[in-house]
Design brief:
Structural class: mainly alpha
Order of helices and strands: HHHH
Strand content: under 5%
Shape: elongated
Helix content: 55-70%
Number of strands: 0
Largest sheet: none
């Protein structure tokens, strides 16, 4: 039987998670291989513009986009 001792500082927290060490070590290895996305100034400007357009109601739903794309396809004869 495994015994786990939880420090008093952690006992009252709601986000305590207990997992096997091999899972934890695998997670740490995976985390180091993932590159973090750092947006460029252009990316930030594009995102700001998209948020502004969305707030103003200038966007397409997925259904509307699909309909427009279907209308652009050449007709088969």
């Amino acid at each position: 039987m495994t015994t786990v001792t939880i420090p008093k500082e952690a006992a009252g927290k709601k986000d305590l998670v207990a997992i096997p060490r091999d899972f934890y070590e695998a997670f740490l290895g995976w985390r180091e291989t993932v590159k973090e996305f750092t947006p460029t100034l252009r990316d930030k400007k594009t995102l700001a513009r998209a948020r502004k357009d969305y707030a103003a109601g200038r966007y397409l739903t997925l259904d509307e986009l699909e309909q427009r794309l279907e209308n652009r396809r050449p007709r088969k004869r």
